[in-house]
C-alpha cells in the first residue's frame, strides 16, 4: 500500500466511523455540503492580511467583498454594531481580546476549569501568555452558576481591581448573570467579555441569553459548536471598541485568516438566518429530554431541580460507575462519542479521571433527531454502562440506529453528513 493509499484509507475509515457512531461531543458539529464546497475554493490558497480595502497583498478584490459580506451578515444575525471575522479559532479570539483590553500584569476574573471555564480564560493558557493574573469567580454548585454576591465581595477585597470580567463557559448549562456581573465590572471600570463559543448557534436562533444587550462589551465565539460552521471564530463588540479590538486581532494575533473557511462561515450565516430558530429550539428540547431520560434511568444528571439544562449540554456525574474516563472509553468502544469532564467539586489535578461526562446534542439535532431519539440514546448509554449486553451487540445496535441519521438538515439542500466527497 502506498502512503497515498494509506492516507485515503485513514480518511475513509474516519468517515465510516463517524457515520455509524453517535456524535455527542458538545464542541463539534457537522457542516453542510454548501459550506464544505467553499472549503475547496481558491480562497484557501490566498493571503489577506489587514482590513477590507487596506491589505498588504495584491489580488484581494474579491476577498474584500467576501469579508465585507461576512462582517455585514454577522452584524445582522447578531444585531451588533461591530464584528471582526478574522480570528481562526476561539482561543485566538480570546487572545486578541486580552491583547486589546489588557496589559501584562493586569488582573482578570474567570471561571475556573472545574466550574466550566475554558482553558484559554486561565493562567496556564491564553490569559497566562498575556501575563494576566487570573482570579476566579465564586461558584454556586447547586445552581451551576456564578455566585454574584460572593463574587462581589471577592472583588471588593481585591487590592488590584480586574480589568476584564470573562463570562461564558465550556461546561455551560444555564445563562450567566451578565447584567449583574456587568454592574460589578462598571463599578471598577472593567470590561465584560462573554465567550459564546458553545452557545453561538443558540444565540443566533434566539434561544439563549443575548449577552451584548444584557451588558457585555465584547463577545468572542468559535463558529463550529452549536453554530454549525467551519472551525474559526468571530468577535463582536460595541462601536467604541471596534478599533481597539481590530488591532488586537491584526496585527495582534492573526496574520492571514484562512479565507476558504470564511466563505464557509458566510454560507453558515445564511443557513442560520433561514433555519436557525427551528434548529436551536430543537437542540434545547433534545438536551432537556436526554437529561430527563438519563435521570429516570437512575443517573446523577446535574441540576434536576432547574430542569437540567437550558443549552445543548447535559452533564452527568458518573463517579458511582467508576468516573468519567472509564465511562467515556466504554461508550467510545460501542460508538457513542462524548468526553469526560471535570465537575465543580473535582480537583483540577484529577483532570485525567474526573467525575463527569459532558454530552452535547447539537450534532445529532442537525442530523434530524428529536425527543424520541433522545430516549433511544439514553437507553443505549444505559445498556453500555450497566453492561446489559455484549459490546458487539451494542455496537450493532448503535450502528443500526445511526444509519437512519446520516443526513445534514437545517440547510438549503439536505446532504450526506459523513461522506468524503469526490471532487472530480
Ligand atoms: N475545550 C473545548 C470544548 O469545550 O470542548 C473547546 O475548545
Proportion of residues in helical segments: 40-55%
Oligomerization: single chain
CATH class of the largest domain: Alpha Beta
Q: Quickly give the structural class.
A: alpha/beta
Count of helix runs: 15
| Proportion of residues in extended strands | 5-15%
CATH H-level superfamily title of the largest domain: Type I PLP-dependent aspartate aminotransferase-like (Major domain)
The set of bound ligands, ions and cofactors reads:
D-serine
Q: Ranges with pLDDT <50 over ≥5 residues?
A: none
Terminal CA distance:
23 Å
- Spatial order of strands in the largest sheet: 4-12-11-10-9-5-6
Overall CATH architecture of the largest domain: 3-Layer(aba) Sandwich
Radius of gyration: 22 Å
How many beta-strand segments?
19
Count of structural domains: 2
Annotated CATH topology of the largest domain? Aspartate Aminotransferase, domain 2
- Biggest sheet features: 7 strands, mixed
Give the overall shape.
globular
Q: SSE layout and pairings?
A:
Layout: H1 3-19, E1 22-23, H2 33-39, E2 50-51, E3 54-55, H3 61-78, E4 82-84, H4 90-101, E5 107-110, H5 126-129, E6 133-136, E7 139-140, E8 145-146, H6 148-157, E9 164-167, H7 178-187, E10 191-195, H8 200-204, H9 211-214, E11 218-222, E12 233-237, H10 242-253, H11 259-296, E13 300-301, E14 313-317, H12 324-333, E15 336-337, E16 339-341, E17 356-360, H13 362-366, H14 371-385, H15 391-402, E18 407-408, E19 415-416
Parallel strand pairs: 1-15, 5-6, 5-9, 9-10, 10-11
Antiparallel strand pairs: 2-3, 4-12, 7-8, 11-12, 13-14, 14-17, 16-17, 18-19
Helix pairs in contact: 2-11, 3-11, 4-10, 11-14
Bound molecules: D-serine.
D-serine (DSN) is lined by residues 27, 90, 118, 170.
